[in-house]
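Q: How would the structure tokens look for this protein?
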Amino acid sequence: MPKRTLAVAPVLTIVIAVILVHKAVGARQHELSTSVDMLVDGHVRLSVLNTSGSPITAIAAIGTRSALEKPITVRSVRFFDSVVNPFGPKEIVPGKTYSFMFFGPNPPPDKLRREVQLKAAIFADGSTWGEPEWVTTLLLRRSSAYQYNTKVLKTIEQASSAGISHEELTQELGQLQKDDFATAKTTEEKQMIEVAYEEALLLLQDTARADGNDVPLQETVTHARSRLLFRINRLEASKPNLKN
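A: Here is the predicted structure in token form.
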């Protein structure tokens, strides 16, 4: 008897056309479409197709699972932002698709009500669409990323000039991260604090070469500075303009 295999193709696809209109003077209408694939393994895929004339630089989407037998609801949030993360997936150019995966096999899909929604989008020309709360969230993530990446850059540049050691710089960044995290008022700020500091700390931890020799602090700082500056420059040039 032939061996049976479990298909992972979507069992249900819902396609939604969304017209995005922004208020910029003389601007053209932006359009995109979304499709929702309910996969038999319990995952749900939300795909966003850019049918506009402008690249999409950021998206916010949420997935909600509600238990059918208990009053329990769990929300998952997904972000795409080619400006905040310039080393990851690039902006979604017209005609291309970006997909988010939500949920999984546990708990079993037949025990849940599952919904996914596109909440907001930012286009390369600075136009935005979506619920104001979620547009604000995307913009706050960017302004926070700019603030804390700039702070980390200034810290490592000053450390380099002062001639301190790897260990001293690592300790200073670690303490600054704790202080900033403790005073941050929003989840978005806390997330961007983690991104900015953890990347720099990860680079500083890589202090040994394959031949066993230590990596000079100046070399580590140069590498970290290059990555930080690249992200900062992308944030500075992004639209809508940052409000710091």
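Residues 63 and 116 are 4 Å apart (CA to CA).

Confidence is low (pLDDT under 50) at residues 1-11, 14-27.

Upvote if useful.
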